């Protein structure tokens, strides 16, 4: 199990929210205050369990969450000296994600809410990523342009306020993190792929291997990475390229696609005072550097959460709960339409339900 870190004081004034995250392969618990203080948190990765299979196995993930979550909640609260009575609300990821794991976290949140008579906030995992930059950067105001790049999603969103999201672009096939993971698999780098590709790319030449930039320049606003992945496979099979050059060239092609699509989103829906990146791929330094340069070019503030807040964590879920409480009010009737205990776990849950349907069988939201 991961380690517990404490970062702050015990003043009770801003609301204190317990966050629970279990939608993919990280079991995570955090206590966050409404002023942005992360009081305590713990994360247990399931990398070792899934590594032999080269990717996340949903049944193994759900079982691992079920085994770890309750002791982790007890440990985080115990070590922080916080009892259920001290908590103002419980925020649990209710989707989108692997349904077995989501159910483990949501049911645990419901049980704690019932036992303590505290409100339950059923949080959209994507909303957690979308608002996490405001946890890291207190000066970040709405609206902002958000690039959400994770293992399951690749979207550009206009974030106008809490609960106000307009999807400007999404992927028509693979998410960017998925493309990193598949590239790692093709290169024999194992799982999880993103950090391994980034490490290998450091030793390669990003111009060495000609790879496509799918949809670059297209009036269709979306992303596509399936063709890039196939081109990586062909480059590997040709046997004529150094793996580090392939990794670096893949990363550069992906970055070029991101910048092109952001340019178009800005042209269509901008200007925005700030550009924000979130999701696991935001941990990638080449991606961050390119986005920072893009933001500077367009005179936009740039915010990227610290690495630990980019990949899945429970602080962002607790923080999304804090944001919703601040924006929507405290009574559970005001926060929820109906009894939160009736809220069902959702494998798919788009942040912008009004967004147009896009072509592509792999589109997840
Ligand atoms: O947000 P996240 O932790 O989980 C999802 O909600 O999907 O994102 C995980 C994804 C994985 O695909 C992983 O390979 C990718 O983020 N990732 C990276 C890096 N670190 C994590 N991709 C590229 N470079 C990295 N350094
Ligand atoms: Zn995520």
Report what the structure shows.
The structure is a single chain. The chain is of the alpha/beta class and 365 residues long. Helix content is 42%, strand content 18%. The strands form 2 sheets. A 6-stranded mixed sheet has the order 1-4-3-2-5-6, with helices on both faces. Strands 9-8-7-10-11 form a 5-stranded mixed sheet, sandwiched between helices. Strand 3 and strand 4 (38-45) form a beta hairpin. Mean pLDDT is 90; it is low at 1-12. Zinc ion is lined by residues 125, 129, 150, 279, 312.
- H/E element sequence: EEEEHHEHEHEEEHHHHEHEHHH
Intertermini distance: 31 Å
Number of strands: 11
Main pleated-sheet profile: 6 strands, mixed
Q: Helical residue percent?
A: 40-55%
Overall shape: it is globular
The spatial strand order of the largest sheet comes to 1-4-3-2-5-6
How many helix segments?
12
What is the average of the pLDDT values?
90
**Ligands present:** 5'-O-[(R)-(carboxyoxy)(hydroxy)phosphoryl]adenosine, zinc ion
Structural class: alpha/beta
Low-confidence stretches: 1-12
Strand content range = 15-25%
- Rounded to an integer, what's the Rg over CA atoms? 20 Å
Tell me which oligomeric state these chains represent: single chain
Give a topology summary.
Elements: E1 5-6, E2 16-21, E3 26-33, E4 38-45, H1 47-50, H2 58-80, E5 89-95, H3 99-116, E6 120-124, H4 125-136, E7 144-149, E8 154-161, E9 164-169, H5 176-186, H6 193-201, H7 226-238, H8 243-269, E10 274-278, H9 285-297, E11 301-303, H10 307-310, H11 315-328, H12 332-335
Parallel strand pairs: 2-5, 5-6, 7-10, 10-11
Antiparallel strand pairs: 1-4, 2-3, 3-4, 7-8, 8-9
Helix pairs in contact: 2-3, 4-11, 5-6, 5-7, 5-8, 6-8, 7-8, 8-9
């Amino acid at each position: 199990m991961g380690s517990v870190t404490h970062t702050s004081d015990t003043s009770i004034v801003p609301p204190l929210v317990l966050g629970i995250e279990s939608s993919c392969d990280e079991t995570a618990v955090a206590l966050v205050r409404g002023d942005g203080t992360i009081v305590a948190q713990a994360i247990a990765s399931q990398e070792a369990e899934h590594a032999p299979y080269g990717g996340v196995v949903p049944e193994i993930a759900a079982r691992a969450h079920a085994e770890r979550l309750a002791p982790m909640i007890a440990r985080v609260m115990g070590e922080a000296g916080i009892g259920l009575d001290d908590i103002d609300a419980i925020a649990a990821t209710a989707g989108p994600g692997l349904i077995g794991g989501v159910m483990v976290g949501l049911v645990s949140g419901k049980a704690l809410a019932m036992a303590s008579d505290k409100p339950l906030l059923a949080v959209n995992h994507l909303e957690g990523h979308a608002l996490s930059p405001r946890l890291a950067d207190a000066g970040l105001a709405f609206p902002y342009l958000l690039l959400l790049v994770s293992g399951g999603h690749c979207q550009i969103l206009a974030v106008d306020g809490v609960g106000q999201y307009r999807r400007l672009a999404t992927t028509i096939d693979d998410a960017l993190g998925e493309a990193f993971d598949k590239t790692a698999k093709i290169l024999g780098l194992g799982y999880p792929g993103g950090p391994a590709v980034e490490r290998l790319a450091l030793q390669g030449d990003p111009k060495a291997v000609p790879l496509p930039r799918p949809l670059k320049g297209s009036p269709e606003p979306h992303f596509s990475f399936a063709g890039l992945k196939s081109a990586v496979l062909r480059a590997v099979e040709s046997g004529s390229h150094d793996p580090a050059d392939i990794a670096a060239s893949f990363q550069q092609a992906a970055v070029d696609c991101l910048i092109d699509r952001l340019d178009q989103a800005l042209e269509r829906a901008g200007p925005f005072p700030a550009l924000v990146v979130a999701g696991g791929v935001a941990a990638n330094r080449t991606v961050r550097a390119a986005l920072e340069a893009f933001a500077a070019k367009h005179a936009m503030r740039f915010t990227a959460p610290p690495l630990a807040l980019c990949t899945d964590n429970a602080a962002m879920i607790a923080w999304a709960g804090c944001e919703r409480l601040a924006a929507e009010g405290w009574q559970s009737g005001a926060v929820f339409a109906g009894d939160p205990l009736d809220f069902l776990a959702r494998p798919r849950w788009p942040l912008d339900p009004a967004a147009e349907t896009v072509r592509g069988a792999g589109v997840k939201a």
